[in-house]
Amino acid sequence: MAAINISPTTSDIRFSVSAADKVAELIKEEDNLNLNLRVSITGGGCSGFQYGFSFDEEINEDDTVVIQQCSDGVSSVKLLVDSMSYQYLHDAEIDYVQGIQGEQFVIRNPNAKTTCGCGSSFSIDDEDDY
């Protein structure tokens, strides 16, 4: 494993408590405590790159792992980011929001130069060194 970050404050990817609470709820619904939330970046979408969310039992050697304690103060969940996706997600925040438009996971990514209206697709500057 390349990096294990014991808390969201030691990583430059932030994983909010509200996101951790929602992940814990979904894991409980799946009845599989070995699941982790994987956030990935793939080519596609209307702006060039798109975010992906999935559950994964396996932690790969090149994954960055961010562990976030839930609001109950007892349980915690893991966020996994592969090395390719990490270069586009450094300094980003993974959050879960509830509002007028419904509930959803959101990524606040300062590396995204443009985003599409759906919020799941983005582009970056070609001049950035990744």
TrEMBL record:
Iron-sulfur cluster binds at residues 46, 116, 118. GO terms for molecular function: 2 iron, 2 sulfur cluster binding; 4 iron, 4 sulfur cluster binding; iron ion binding. Keywords: Iron, Iron-sulfur, Metal-binding. Its cofactor is iron-sulfur cluster. One of its GO terms (biological process) is iron-sulfur cluster assembly. Residues 13-119 form the Core domain. Binds 1 iron-sulfur cluster per subunit. PANTHER family: IRON-SULFUR CLUSTER ASSEMBLY 2 HOMOLOG, MITOCHONDRIAL (PTHR43011). Belongs to the HesB/IscA family. Homodimer. NCBIfam families: iron-sulfur cluster assembly accessory protein, PRK13623.1. Required for insertion of 4Fe-4S clusters for at least IspG. This is Iron-sulfur cluster insertion protein ErpA.
